[in-house]
Amino acid sequence: MNEARKRLFVLLLAFSLLALVLIFAFAWWLVSKQSLIINQIILTLTLVFFIVVFLIISIGVILLIYSLWSLKIYRGSNILIRKAIDFLFPIAIKLGHWLGIEDDKIKSSYIQVSNALVKLEQKTILPEKILILAPHCLQRVQCPHKITVNVNNCKCCGLCPVGDLLLLSQERGVQLVVATGGTFARKFIKEKKPQAIIAIACERDLTSGIQDVECIPVMGIVNERPEGPCQNTRVNLCRVEKAINYFVQGGEV
Questions:
Q1: Are 195 and 130 in contact (CB under 8 A)?
Q2: Residue among 237, 211, 218 nearest 125 (CA)
Q3: What's the CATH number where 188 sits?
Q4: Tell me: the pLDDT tens digits for 18-38?
Q5: What is the Cα–Cα distance from 241 to 168, expressed in whole angstroms?
Q6: What is the pTM of this model?
Q7: Which of 145, 204, 143, 147 minimizes the C-alpha distance to 176?
Q8: How many separate domains does the chain show?
Q9: pLDDT tens column, 210-247
């Protein structure tokens, strides 16, 4: 299932590149019909710019495909891969709309690809430098305790996953915060200064969060929504602990 998700996003990236080529070919045909010199100058400059951008993005996509296929990544290539993905991502979403593919399915595929790249880096991180970033919707709606200010206010009653996450973070020696949105998430990251992040959220928030964070590896875990979005959501604790192991042990476990 995970392999299928990764293939979906990679295929959409490739088709996005093809869409760019077709758009430029049409623009070339349109402008080349004009005989004015200024049109030729603009066309030449545009062509040079396009070729440079296209080559950079193409190299990024090729490196992405090679990394996922060979299960290894060249040092320093992750930045180029990420830039190529971020550039093509909106085009991939639009292309997915035209093909009738749901946003969440594409974004889930993106998260799978991003996680795979993080795993290939095989960075070893001290537990205290790992931050679990959890969404407020994991807390039971009826709960009166304010855990976004201090997660230790959780009473670990067992009615929601927050208590289990708190116990896991204490056992493994990692940091845990609960954020109400992207603004607070960025605030916590700035305060805690983690070297690795395990982010729990819906596909939309995870996608935007991964793209916002630079230079910090993020392992994304999609939450479970048995009662719909933004209320009484759940998370697979085994996946959270496995993500901790990836960072602490520096590779697949």
A1: yes
A2: 218
A3: 3.40.50
A4: 888 888 887 777 667 666 566
A5: 8
A6: 0.80
A7: 147
A8: 2
A9: 988 878 999 999 999 988 888 899 999 999 999 999 99
